[in-house]
Amino acid sequence: MAYINYIYFFILYSIITITANEQKNYNNTNTLRKKRYLLFPNPLDSETKLQVLFGLGLPMEEEISMTLGYVLKCNYNLPYNTTDFTQPYIRYQRDIKNNGMSRWELYRIFELALNSLGSGKACLLRAVCETAENSFDQRHGLFGELLHIFFNPSATKEQYKFYEDREYHAAELIGRLSIGECKSIFHELYASGVADVDGGATRESVGDWSMACNKDLDL
């Protein structure tokens, strides 16, 4: 008899425990709140960013009051779409914008910087030509590889921004085919915008090379 009572007690205890657990799960489901997200207005064509600045100013004791400062700026794009939270690792092709600077824009910046030496265009074309003539290899280390990439237009395939950008590919081809001719071909130096063509080829001749080499370079 005692054994039967023990079985009844165990069954009753099991029923009460299961019922309590189900009630607890039901309450947790009702009281559980999903994560809420704060979205910012759609910036349309522009981007809304959170900017954090860190600055350090160092006053210099000279005859003229001067302050040398260092600034660290961090930009964070603010979310305006729920997918930034629900699917943070998915990027759609239409949302990927190529805002990087092209090779031709970098070349134009270097041209302006080298204009103080004469013709910035000619200096850069000569550097491209000599790099193709004497290619960098593993012996030159990382810096040499970076120079090789920068001064070799064929290292990347980019659309021309202006027709004159073809001259860089022509200069590279000249360096490969005409060994030792880079100095004489790109000898021009500009003074007040006038080309000194004595002993060297003019920019127009480089343009002719560019037109002639387009087919060979598959441009």
UniProtKB/TrEMBL annotation:
Pfam families per the UniProt record, alphabetical: DM4_12 (PF07841)
Keyword terms: Signal
InterPro entries, alphabetized: DM4_12 (IPR006631)
Organism per entry: Microctonus aethiopoides
Superkingdom of origin organism: Eukaryota
The protein's name in its UniProt record: Uncharacterized protein
Signal peptide (residue range): 1-20
